[in-house]
Structure of Putative cytosine deaminase protein:
Amino acid sequence: MVFSTSTHPSAPSTASIDIDGPPDLVYKGVYVANKPDNTLWDVAFKNGHISALDEHKVPDQEHITEKHHDGDHHRGTKFLCPSLCHPHIHLDKCFLLSHPKYSDLEIKDGDFAEAMKLTSEAKRRYEVDDLIERGQALIEESIELGVTHMRAFVEVDLVVQMKCLDAGLALKEKFQDRIYMQICVFAQDPIVSYGDNGKAMMELLEVAANRHGVSCFGSTPYVEKDGDRIKQLANIEFAIKTAMRCKLHLDFHIDYNLDPNQPSMVGETIELLHKMKWPTDCNEHLYRSIIFSHCSRLTLFSQHEWLELRRKILGLPVSFIGLPNSDLFMMGRPGKEDVEQTTQRVRGTLQVLDIIQRYAMNAAIGINNVGNAFTPHGSCDPLSLASFGQCVSHRAKTAIGIRLTIANEIDIDVGDEAHFIIFGNENPSRPFRTRKTIQDVVCDPSRDRTTIYKGKVVSNTSRESAGIGSCALRGYGESLILSLDASRAG
């Protein structure tokens, strides 16, 4: 499915885009994703789009200008591919473990209950300046790593009120020329499990969802008191109504358990979406995407249950997002009663490639949290999940409602919007270390990265970055575990 970043998801068109005349930016002699790895290409950008893409010819002499960031001396050392996307990342909860303001909030048990407790305590200390400081670090590090699109969750509840949202909207405005940000008003806390049946919480969320600059509404049905099914359905129904009324994308953090005796709520949510007439016509101006995140319970599904779920979803713009860093940290651990058990345990995170290949539904993968009790390990780098061989580029963008010329395919051509990441060779004297294909980048991502957003260099961490608007590379943890839109995932 193809979605739009604009209010009305019209089909992509270059008819009104002027890509003639001198280019704004040129890369010469680079490898290009999904082009033969024995060919080099010259790529030119103008007005935020690719204006030319030609196979590279070696001239007798090549004049190098400031606009030509790659000439003979760089030929064959760089690889251009689609930029990365965070389809699911929490802006307000990042870097709590390393920030001095929260240094006393130490992890001891490492379980979900403790993570909720520590985060609740942290939230009582939140101030807008602190939220902006940590959020800015996450955004800047993400841009440096090649991220040009993100859905950022900011919590709104009776404790933090609008602090997280205020910070998120301020950061969105500050970085509008360097990254596309969707701000998601997120109800991490229960919506209806209160003495007033959620009246105050719902009023607060409705005001937040109507704020200018908000793109998405999200909720967490499983946190309702005692996991009560009726309360979860009330949470879900409120989220759907709010998203439809405010014309927002919808994002459920749902089914975060591995209990075979606890029914999945995804199927009932799908039924509610159909019953409440969520727009299914991609040409409808109210058309918005739907994401189901986590969904650990679905890893227990049989093939029959998956096929039945696909049948129910038919027509709805649904995507699934796996969050392995958090899912594997929280899920699939042995209980105290079976600590001696050595038999195979449930994986605990979505099999994203199965969802794509076997069941023909869209799915992607995301970082979720960085540096907090839900996910104490890992960095902002989507490629740090490469061992899962799953999708963090085109499919991730499609999931959050981004319009693509060809959904989920890597087919770089003239007229495409110019959102790219260029991987350099950290040691050009060793040409065998040059990345030439998606597989090379997935298996061994280079730290030498140039991020292009709307045809402009917004970050450059290469050694030759002087004079090209470079950004200092911050210290972040070594890559752990994702991939670009693995072409094998189709």
